[in-house]
Amino acid sequence: MSESLAIDHEGNALVAFHRAAEGGSVDDAPLTASLVAWWHNERLLLVFDRQRQQWELPGGMIDPGETPRQAAVRELREETGYELEQLALAGHARFALGPERRSEYAAVFGACAVPHGRDFTPNEEIIAVCWWDGVQPLSGRVQILDVLLGQLSRSSSTCPTGDGGR
Q1: Burial of 76 from C-beta contacts in 10 A (0-12 / 13-18 / 19+)
Q2: Which helix (H) or strand (E) holds 149?
Q3: Domains of the chain: residue spans and CATH
Q4: Taking the model in full, what pTM does it have?
Q5: In this predicted structure, which of 37-51, 103-117, 140-154 has the lowest mean pLDDT?
Q6: Where is the Nudix hydrolase domain (predicted)?
């Protein structure tokens, strides 16, 4: 496979990030997951996954019959308690996963909004959430692929100047 943008501690690789318009699709590998890169005041929302023991973007697998957008909204709500419908498709991330280097895509949705009305309660999957500035050390491992996707998905279309999110 071609050169990767980044490789994580388990050898999973972010191979490419393709900007996409709403309704855009991929057809050379399965689209299996949706992720949310939500920025507020120069900080990226991360969740700490109990099983993987790492900070990562909210998101997860797309359920049968669900659109990538619906999966992103659902996963954000389930993992953080936040309800946010204003998500913009930033692009598709192509990964090479596992020892077999299986090729999969994730839809990455960007958001730049002021968070409202959330009292996080740890759950079976997520034990903490934070708004990370990218500098302050976090307790625990940070998923480098997700941090890079957060940066790549950030654009003037998802975070316009003056909206309170930057």
Answers
A1: buried
A2: helix 144-153
A3: 6-153 (3.90.79.10)
A4: 0.90
A5: 103-117
A6: 30-155
